[in-house]
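Structure request: DUF2141 domain-containing protein, Stieleria magnilauensis.
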Amino acid sequence: MPVQNDKLPFRSPNEKGRYRRAWKESHGNLLLSFAGVIFLIGLAMIWASPPDTSEFDVDLGTVANTDQAQSLPPNVILIRVVTSQLDSPGPIRIAVYDSAENFGNPDRAIIKDSLVPIDGFVVWEIQLGILPEQFAIAAYHDLDDNGELNRALFNAPVEPYGFSNNARSLVGPPTYEQTIMERPSESTAIEIRVY
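Returned structure:
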């Protein structure tokens, strides 16, 4: 006659798999998947949503005003990059690209530079003659001044960044085609917001 061990709990055949059956009956996998999708959609919306414009306390009217176009230097493009991180001493880094193959790789940029923002913005002056017919601009605010765009979970940037045409994408960076600009024929000013 077998001896029953008191240390091991006795389970009846009906109790085996009770939790597994309850999970299946309540459609646990489906509900968990639904919650995961809602969570990811929420993250994407937060990540891709533009900031409240009241965060930017910078007077943007002086360069963007068409009446001021005559006061621009001849044959230049002025690129004004505005940040919401007014207290950060880190530089804003900019790169100009001439092709989709080079886009996003700072080592292949045709022009790259960095300036420390004053009052929340920096301005670059680039001669029109050195720009190709079509180009794209990428900029980011290097808050910790480590020379690279810091990233977090799912490779999402954690430092403010922006592109020409103020292009954004829900998943990953915008494409080169979304950020392409034509070289202007006369002096002009553009603005990029990094957030």
